[in-house]
Fold this sequence. Notes:
single chain; 208 residues; alpha+beta; nine-stranded antiparallel β-sheet; two-stranded antiparallel sheet; 4 helices; 11 strands
Amino acid sequence: MKFPRTTLILILLALGLGSFVYFHEIKAATQREEIKEQKQQIFSFAEDDVQALTVKTKKLTLNLERNNQSSNSKWLIKSPISEPANDAIVSYLMDLLVKGKSERTLATPANQLGEFALEQPQATINIILKNKQNHQLILGKKNFNGSLLYAQADPVSKPDGNINVLLVSTDFENAVNRELSEWKEPVDNIKSTPLPTTLPLPTPTNTK
Length: 208
């Protein structure tokens, strides 16, 4: 049976349109779902599991340790100075480490890590847990549109020689790139002098 030329053209157009819909809608939706499924927790420990942190940036290496002796300050700076830490600042970083997720994971050859600024990172965070386990997060540069940050968590080569590069929130960059003064416990330098409970009466002057 022969189809008329016009009918054959319409059939080919319909097939072409169907292919277009499949590749641009159905397949794209599947890829979006795969990317969504790739979002995963960076680390699996809890905040209370962490005993110590070392934050190393290009300007500063800071050692923090949980304060188990006092309820006033949860964290102590051990070096480069020794004094209580700013709990709010440390808690902000801890929250990112505990709850932070990787938006996407890229399997990358080890010799290409320099493209993500991971060989000479902007910051490295070393984490020591109470059970003596160690974890590490390396922060590289931002991605092409500046919305995410390239990173490595507990870097190790896979059997194929590749290394997983994560895309994480830029909040990590804001959390670690701080001056030493910001890590220190804030001190209120304004000390008010209490008023006396009773005001002295004026001394009468003798008049003649």
